[in-house]
Structures are given as C-alpha cells and as structure tokens.
C-alpha cells in the first residue's frame, strides 16, 4: 500500500505537485556520452552550455511549459549544480533523474569490478546507489550530494535485455519502492516483458512509465495498449523528430486517440526526447515545447477533448512524479 | 636533446633519478566516482598522499632525485591538476599517462571510437596537453581486459598506442602481459620497435604462470616486474597477491639469465585509492623499504640496482624521435 504525497522532487527540493504545470517528461538537458568529457575534441564551456539551456527553457516557459524532466540518469552528463542555477534563473521546474543504462553505457566499476571473478553489480547494489540519490541527494562525483533525484531512469539494450540491464531495472524498481519516486524505463526489445520485471519487484504499475512506445516495433507488437492495460504509463517520447524506427506524426496522433478511446487517457505521456545540449553525440534538436506548440494542436484537430489534453500534458505527469509514500514505512518526505 | 614529459613540463632524462615506473596517485574503475563509499575529502587525500611522496623524494635523493610514473588511465580518476600540485610541493617528478588501463576501463565514447580517433586522442595528450591542464603525457597506457584474452577493443587501443608512440616518441606500458602474441603482432604490424614497450605485471599472482616473459624478452620487449609488494603474507592480500619469496626468485631468475637491461620494477601502489579499498601499508616506498634490501640481500650490486631503477627507465622514458 502506498499513498501519494502532493510533492515532487525537483533539483531545488520538494515542490508542490500543483505547481508543475505542463511537463516535458522525457527529455535531456546536458547530454554527454560517458567518456566524452575527457575527449580531446569536446569542450565543455559551462557558460555557453548554461546560455543554450536557459534559452531553451525560457522558450519552453513562454510556450506554456512549466517543468522539464531530465531523464538521462546519473552518468550521462547530469550536472546538478548547473540545473539548480538554470531552475532559479528561468523559473522552469527541473526534475533530474538517477539511474543508468543500458549496459553499454555503464562504467567498468559496475561491470568488471576489482574482484575475482569480476562479477557485475546485482540489483540490490544498484537499488542502494539509486535510492541514496533520492534520500541523500544526487552525487557531484567525489565532491558532494546536491538535491533529490525525482525519478529513476533505466534503459534496456535494443537487441534484448542483458543480465545487467535486468539488474538495473530491478534495482530501479526497489529504489522506487523504497523512496516513492517513479521508474522511467526505456524498453529494449520487449516492453511487456520488461514491465513484468519491474512489477515482479512489487512496484505498483502506476509507478512505472515505459518509454519508446512510439517505436514501430513496439506498435507492431501491440505494446502501447498492453502496457496501458497493465496499469503503467505509456510514453510516446519521440515527438518532433523523424526517424525510421518511429511512427510518423500522423500515426502518433492516431495512437494517442486509440489509447484515449480505449479508456487509457490517464496512462498516456507525450514527450520529445529533446536534447538541450549534446556532447559526444548528435543529440535531438527539438524544442522542449514541441509537444505543446506543434503536437497538441494536431491532437485537437483530430478530435481530442480539451480535458484529455490537460490530462495528458499536466495531470498524468503530475501523478507520475508525485512522491508515493509507502504506508507504515518511514517516509522520505512529509505527506502534506 | 633528451627529454621526458612530466606534469610540470619536460625535464632532461638526466634529472629522472630513481624511477618507480608503474604507480598510481589514486586509481578507481570508471563509475566508482559515483559511489560515495570511496569518497575522501581533499584534506584526507593530501594527508594520505603527501607523506608518501615526501618519503619517496627523500629516499631517492641518493639517486639524484625520484620520478613517479602514474599510469592511471584516462577514465580511471586520472587528475593531472592534482598531480601538478603534488609534484610542485614535494619535488617528486610525476609523469602522467595517456591511454587506458584496458578496454574495460574505456568509457562508451572511447569504446565506440576507431583506431584513428584513439590515436589522435593519445597524440593530442602527448603533444598539446591533457584536458585543459597544459601538461603533456609522458607514457601511453594499454592493457588486457578482464578475462585473460585481448578483446577487439583492447586491440584497437594497442594499435592506436603503437601509432601514437611512433608519432611522438613516447613509450608504451601495458597492464598485463598475457596474450602477448596478439600484442606483439600488433606492434610489429605497426612497425614499433618492441624496446619501446614495457610489458607489465609479468609477476602478479594470477597471471605470472600464464605470462611468457622470456618469450617477450626474446622478441625485444621490456619486462615489468611491477607488482612488488602485493604479497600473500599481507593480513588482507588482494586476489593478485603472490608469495614474496616466489616473486623475488622469479625476478632474480629472470635477470640472472642476462636480461637485466630489459627489466623494470615497481610497486603498483596507490597513494590514496579512489574506487577500491587499496592495500593497507603498501606504498611506492616498498621499493626502498623492502625491495632494495631484498635485492641487496640476494647479492645484487649497486650497479645492478642502478641499471634496473635508473638506467633502464631513463632509456625507456626518453622521448625517441
Ligand atoms: Zn597499475
């Protein structure tokens, strides 16, 4: 059993859930491929990065946005100090994530530790690592902890979940259960099976969002409806970019309407996987406000009601991000 | 002109003095920086590290100074600004490396890179600087991933290192000398003379039996007995520990076969480990406190000691262009 609190963990601390407004729920602020920070041809000019991100956040706010969720996890360029300054400067709420994945994105510390044999990390150790980022603060490597993580983000390998991917997901589910934040999982090859793994850890389905469900392979497998039926959130998270592996804009509109008509309007999340600033990769140059300014009008034109629009861009992410406090457990935050 | 790149700038080879050729200021697997269990304050880091370097400096005085070669790879907590401050304040020459301890310590950005990109990374760090520090790398680190065989990524890194070595004149140090046939083949294909490569860790407890040290030496490679001090006699030995006597005898046997000009020795200690517990009491000063007395006890002359700790490393580290 658990009850929802009315607060959400942002990089500046708990914020009343009612304040979030429109949420871009599956995005990236500073996105750095692990290792690129040491590359001879990559420069990380903090002032320039700040300026670029602040411009994008202000544009988002001007278009009606309230909150951006950085779901890149703890090892893909996350810079909590910078995000705090951005949140203060722009007035946009920033929710940052702990978690990591898929396996190929991990450091050797987790995969080939200095033990004999070099056994990869089990779920329990990932759970502790991630939970501490919620309860004690997110790590600024070897310096300090700063601000609570607002969700746990994991991802599975596209060709199929590896053993370590599964440990990451199970660890994320345990951390979510212990701390009340949700899990955002970018599925690998089998969305339904991967959701089952999170649920196997006794995490309620409504504490999980499965990302990548506007991929053509997910739709061909019937995953969006299946995931919604299972009670988890369905993220269509590549809105605004053209990619062979994903639905077209029109197909996405149809999928949203299909989900709503099937009674799952309260399970749908929309996002762009936009990259504010990318280092070591091309990133995805889409505005954080794209869903609001370009996609929502298409949904309205296709007949989606205003109530459903509000539900999808405001209510659903608010419910997802609201801390879910385990009953009869020591709560990480006061339930107000 | 004879020169070696240190973190405070190039120095003449003649200034190197006694060289600890395979050491670490602090080592941690990539990602260990996220685990607070290993964190120490900067106060603690300096407190753990400075006295060891100061003692090293004092011991090395008899050899005209001391040089500490830090072979902590690119993603393993290498921290050149910190090394610069340590060197400036203690007087110990510190040589930093470019390269990777092994493919399994290269993060995704580098793991996905081709030989050409890796070569440019290494050459840049040797000729332009490491990050924004301005310090030039003085050696190139490569190594074999866990599992005993060179992976495809290990091989890409070895090949890039060979090209960077040929382009810059800086030598290569290996982590592990197992699967040496593959390593030697790559260096040969690239045209790198094997005396520019120190095949390290031939003496560690896990791999010594599997390491063809004599064969590597016959091919012309240099041989690193560089895990001195990781002993099974320790109260809490690491898994790569080896009986003290056994390692010493291995070393003496090897140099007794007329190969003293091909060996280098070191302790592979951490001044202050970054992502593992370290081995309590094991420091770079094992060289002075234990190893040199053991070697003298075994009848090694002062001239032989100078060959191993001064002349061989000077020859190896000197930029050869
Ligand atoms: Zn080492």
UniProtKB/TrEMBL annotation, chain A:
A single MF term (Gene Ontology): zinc ion binding
Sorted UniProt keywords: Hydrolase, Metal-binding
The keyword Hydrolase belongs to this UniProt entry's keyword annotation: yes
SUPFAM superfamilies: Metallo-dependent hydrolases
Sequence similarity: Belongs to the metallo-dependent hydrolases superfamily. Phosphotriesterase family.
Protein name: Phosphotriesterase
UniProtKB/TrEMBL annotation, chain B:
Modified residues (N6-carboxylysine): 141
UniProt keyword Hydrolase, yes or no: yes
Gene3D superfamilies noted in UniProt: Metal-dependent hydrolases
Endoplasmic reticulum found in the keyword field: no
Cofactor binding note: Binds 2 divalent metal cations per subunit.
Family: Belongs to the metallo-dependent hydrolases superfamily. Phosphotriesterase family.
UniProt protein name: Phosphotriesterase
Source organism of the structure: Actinospica durhamensis
């Amino acid at each position: 059993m658990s009850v929802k609190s009315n607060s959400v963990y942002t990089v500046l601390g708990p914020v009343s859930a009612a304040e979030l407004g429109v949420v871009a729920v599956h995005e990236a602020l500073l996105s750095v491929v692990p290792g690129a920070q040491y590359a001879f041809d990559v420069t990380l000019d903090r002032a320039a990065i700040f300026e670029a991100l602040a411009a994008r956040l202000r544009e988002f706010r001007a278009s009606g946005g309230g909150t951006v969720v950085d779901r890149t996890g703890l090892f893909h360029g996350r810079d909590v100090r910078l995000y705090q300054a951005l949140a203060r400067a722009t007035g946009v709420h920033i929710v940052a994530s702990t978690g990591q994945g898929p396996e190929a994105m991990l450091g050797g510390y987790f995969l080939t530790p200095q033990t004999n044999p070099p056994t990869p990390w089990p779920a329990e150790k990932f759970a502790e690592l991630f939970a501490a980022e919620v309860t004690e603060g997110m790590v600024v490597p070897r310096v300090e902890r700063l601000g609570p993580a607002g969700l746990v983000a994991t991802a599975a390998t596209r060709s199929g979940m590896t053993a370590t991917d599964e440990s990451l997901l199970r660890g994320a589910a345990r951390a979510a259960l212990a701390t009340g934040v949700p899990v955002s999982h970018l599925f690998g090859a089998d969305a339904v099976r991967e959701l089952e793994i999170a649920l196997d850890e006794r995490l309620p389905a409504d504490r999980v969002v499965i990302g990548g469900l506007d991929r053509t392979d997910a739709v061909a497998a019937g995953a969006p409806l299946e995931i919604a039926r299972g009670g988890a959130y369905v993220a269509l998270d590549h809105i605004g970019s053209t990619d062979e592996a994903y639905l077209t804009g029109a197909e996405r509109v149809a999928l949203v309407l299909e989900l709503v008509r099937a009674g799952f309007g309260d399970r749908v999340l929309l996002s762009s996987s936009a990259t504010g600033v990318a280092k070591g990769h091309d990133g995805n140059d889409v505005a954080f406000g794209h869903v609001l300014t370009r996609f929502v009008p298409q949904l309205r034109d296709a007949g989606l009601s205003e109530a459903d629009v509000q539900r999808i861009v405001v209510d659903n992410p608010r419910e997802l991000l609201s801390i879910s406090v385990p009953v009869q457990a020591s709560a990480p935050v006061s339930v107000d | 002109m004879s020169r070696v790149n240190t973190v405070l700038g190039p120095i003449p080879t003649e200034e190197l003095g006694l060289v600890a050729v395979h050491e670490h200021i602090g080592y941690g697997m990539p990602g260990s920086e996220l685990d607070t269990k290993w964190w120490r304050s900067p106060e603690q880091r300096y407190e753990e590290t400075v006295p060891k370097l100061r003692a090293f400096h004092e011991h090395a005085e008899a050899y005209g100074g001391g040089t500490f070669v830090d072979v902590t790879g690119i993603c393993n907590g290498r921290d050149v600004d910190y090394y610069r401050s340590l060197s400036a304040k203690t007087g110990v020459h510190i040589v930093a490396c470019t390269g990777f301890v092994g493919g399994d310590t290269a993060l995704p950005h580098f793991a996905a890179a081709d030989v050409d990109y890796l070569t440019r990374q290494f050459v840049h760090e040797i000729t332009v600087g490491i990050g924004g520090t301005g310090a030039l790398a003085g050696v190139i680190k490569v190594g074999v991933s866990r599992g005993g065989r060179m992976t495809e990524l290990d091989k890409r890194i070895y090949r890039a290192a060979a090209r960077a070595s040929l382009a810059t004149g800086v030598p290569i140090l290996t982590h592990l000398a197992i699967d040496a046939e593959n390593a030697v083949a790559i260096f040969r294909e690239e045209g790198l003379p094997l005396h520019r490569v120190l095949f390290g860790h031939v003496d560690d407890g896990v791999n010594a039996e599997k390491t063809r040290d004599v064969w590597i030496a016959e091919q012309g490679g240099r041989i690193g007995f560089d895990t001195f001090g990781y002993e099974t006699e320790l109260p809490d030995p690491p898994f790569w520990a080896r009986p003290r006597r056994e390692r010493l005898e291995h070393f003496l046997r090897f140099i007794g076969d007329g190969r003293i000009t091909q060996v280098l020795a070191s302790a592979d200690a951490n001044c202050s480990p970054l992502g593992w517990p370290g081995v309590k009491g094991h420091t770079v000063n094992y060289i002075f406190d234990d190893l040199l007395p053991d070697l003298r006890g075994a009848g090694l002359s002062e001239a032989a000691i100078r060959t191993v700790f001064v002349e061989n490393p000077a020859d190896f580290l000197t930029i050869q262009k």
